[in-house]
Design goal:
The protein folds into 2 domains: 84 residues, no CATH class; 115 residues, no CATH class. It contains 7 helices and 13 strands. With 241 residues, the protein is α+β, with helices and mostly antiparallel strands. It is elongated, with a radius of gyration of 24 Å. Strand 2 and strand 3 form a beta hairpin. Strands 1, 2, 3, 7, 11, 12 and 13 form a 7-stranded mixed beta sheet that branches. A 3-stranded antiparallel beta sheet has the order 4-6-5. A 3-stranded antiparallel beta sheet has the order 8-9-10, with no helix packed on it. It comes from Xanthobacter oligotrophicus.
């Protein structure tokens, strides 16, 4: 018996299956397609998550970093301090950079909590430190991860749709619903039919860390903390208090 030719919808579904293969959060059910969409800060639907991740299905989807070094271009005054201090004691500069970036990480995390709407512990886990050494006078805060499922923003079902607080602003997303069998994530239908569905995501920590209040918090921490730490560490090296 001849194998029937797949329908155009079946062919499309097969292509999408291949494109998102291995992504545990994507679910294909019968003839229905479930795919991710990323929300904009104003609550409108943005681009396809699969487009934004460039085909990466599992693990970190993106990463960013903010850092300070002797060649730092952030503030000329601090760059000059670093250059002079590095000539006296690279070890002291490394210690000052590391203490400064630790303080900056705390400030950036607090800013990201308000900026994204995520919990402090969630943001903290997504960031890490790259510490300076005498041979490498660069210290960084690094963030990794992908766009966060909308369910993580204190989502709850209402009659009009799911209420959630991405970007720290609670709003109701009309005609959305949570599906327990799919992990309690938030979905919206593409049209009047049952399928396809789109799973909704909120902000990504790596994206948010390098802009807005988070970026400002980093610069403020460096500007206020680094000169004090350099003074303290050089004082120890030169025999001061």
């Amino acid at each position: 018996m001849a194998t029937p030719k797949p329908s155009r919808w079946g062919q499309y579904n097969a292509k999408q299956t291949e494109r998102i293969r291995g992504e545990s959060e994507s679910v294909l059910s019968g003839r229905g397609l479930i795919e991710g969409r990323v929300l904009n800060p104003n609550g409108t639907i943005g681009r396809s998550r699969s487009d934004l991740t460039r085909g990466v299905a599992n693990g970190p989807l993106m990463s960013t970093a903010v850092g300070i070094s002797v060649e730092w271009q952030g503030l000329a005054r601090i760059r000059e301090l670093l250059e002079r201090a590095a000539q006296v004691s690279p070890q002291a500069v490394a210690r000052a950079l590391n203490r400064t970036v630790e303080k900056a990480r705390t400030d950036v995390t607090r800013a990201l909590v308000k900026q994204t709407g995520l919990k402090f512990g969630t943001v903290r886990k997504a960031t890490s430190l790259w510490r300076a050494s005498a041979g490498s006078l660069t210290a960084e805060i690094r963030a990794k991860g992908g766009y966060t499922s909308l369910k993580e923003f204190s989502a709850r079902q209402t009659k009009k749709g799911v209420s959630a607080a991405p970007w720290g602003r609670r709003q109701v997303f009309d005609h959305t619903f949570m599906v327990k069998r799919y992990g309690g994530h938030v979905y919206k239908r593409e049209g009047k039919d049952r399928f396809p569905l789109r799973k909704l995501y909120g902000p990504a920590i790596p994206v948010e860390m390098v802009k807005g209040a988070s970026r400002d918090a980093f610069f403020r921490a460096v500007e206020s903390e680094l000169p004090k730490r350099l003074d303290h560490e050089l004082g120890r090296v030169l025999g001061g208090s």
